[in-house]
Specification:
alpha/beta; 6-stranded antiparallel β-barrel; elongated; PLP-binding_barrel
């Protein structure tokens, strides 16, 4: 087993929280997605510091598992990734960021996703002025109405580029708005629009599927799929029986054990205690990405109770989440079952991250990317 922690991260003895990141599970998920997507190629989405888990160890693990293409959101992320993987193909979702940034793309061999005619013009102009190749990805707007070239933009570009060959589109892509809702008519509509426009670029590969899109299968797979959350163990479609393995376990160190008599209250807002209770105080809170909504949203009618996992048993989270503290009702475990220094699992193999996200009224993407810098991060792999 290999233990590492990033420079500047707190050590295991002094951190309030502990993240265990299972790189074997990450590699397993990549291989599973590759099998599901065949014959399409799997490009790993590692934006936002690999969804909060650390771009360097995550990218290296994916590379070792066979991944050769990676997507990030920002050029700064692409530069960071280039230092980690000198030979990878790196694509940047959010476009050029202005004409002056084009030099950065070339210097670090980043491939821009062109989202507008202004992106197209800037990338063309930089290539002509500097006599450099101009590979790119064309992002076709098919209905989500965020980034992307309109249908008219795409047709105009196809006509002009056929005459000048100024750019080399490697991939034509779009992004699904409702892939996480199987059977939603929007997905079929987007696929139809996309197929009409991708036909204008017969030499380019096509890409439409994100994590949920992989599980839609069939015509959605195209040539390249772009999973993100599925790599990290999140369930891309709510309610599905996910074959993916949990990658990250978030733990909170117990700082104190409180014996609270019935009739007293705990935490901000004075949540009442209706029985003599044993409360374990964890050393993480919303500053560490364990959202205040874990308990505030759960208090709403019809919402689920939030749980942690302590010494082999699920226990309720009680009271409001503080910036640095979370309270766990460990009464059912018995008077001496929990000690200072024990760890409570906030989410992981026993408490799925998607369960916590549902309790919060959010999604696992937000939880993972909210993980703060105060955790001790342990990256584990089996010995080879």
């Amino acid at each position: 087993m290999v233990n590492t922690t990033s420079i500047g991260q707190p050590g295991p003895l002094i951190a309030g929280g502990h993240l265990v990141i299972d790189l074997d599970a990450l590699a397993y998920n990549y291989r599973l997605l590759k099998e599901l997507a065949e014959p399409a190629e799997v490009a790993g989405v590692v934006k936002a510091d690999a969804y909060g888990l650390g771009i360097e160890p995550v990218a290296r693990t994916l590379w070792e598992a066979g991944c050769r293409r990676f997507f990030v959101a920002l050029p700064a992320e692409g530069v960071a990734l280039r230092h980690v993987l000198p030979d990878a193909e790196i694509y940047v979702f959010n476009g050029l960021f202005g004409a002056e940034a084009a030099a950065v793309y070339c210097a670090h061999r980043l491939i821009p996703v062109l989202n507008s005619l202004s992106d197209v013009s800037m990338w063309e102009a930089y290539g002509w002025d500097n006599d450099v190749p101009r590979p790119c990805v064309l992002h076709v707007e098919s209905g989500i109405n965020r980034l992307g070239l309109t249908a008219d933009n795409v047709r105009q570009f196809a006509e002009e580029n056929a005459l000048t060959s100024a750019l080399t589109p490697l991939i034509v892509m779009t992004h699904l708005a409702c892939a996480d809702a199987p059977g939603h008519p929007m997905s079929a509509e987007q696929l139809q629009r996309f197929n009409q426009l991708r036909a204008l670029f017969p030499e380019a590969e096509a890409s439409i599927a994100n994590s949920a899109g992989v599980f839609l299968g069939g015509d959605y797979l195209c040539d390249v799929v772009r999973p993100g959350i599925a790599l990290y163990g999140g369930t891309p479609i709510a309610g599905m029986n996910s074959p993916l393995r949990s990658v990250v376990t978030a733990l909170s160190r117990i700082a104190q054990i409180k014996h609270v008599p019935a009739g007293q209250t705990v935490g901000y807002g004075a949540t009442p205690v209706h029985r003599d209770s044993i409360i374990a105080v964890g050393s993480t809170g919303y500053a560490d990405g364990y959202h205040r909504a874990v308990t505030s949203h759960a208090a709403k009618p019809g919402s689920r109770q939030a749980y942690a996992f302590v010494n082999g048993q699920r226990v309720p989270v009680i009271g409001r989440i503080s910036m640095d503290l979370t309270l766990f009702d460990v009464t059912e475990l018995g008077p001496d079952a929990v000690s200072i220094g024990d760890m409570a699992e906030l989410f992981g193999k026993n408490i799925p991250v998607d369960e916590v996200a549902e309790v919060c009224g959010t999604i696992s993407y937000e939880l993972l990317t909210s993980l703060g810098q105060r955790y001790y991060r342990e990256y584990v792999r089996n010995e080879r």
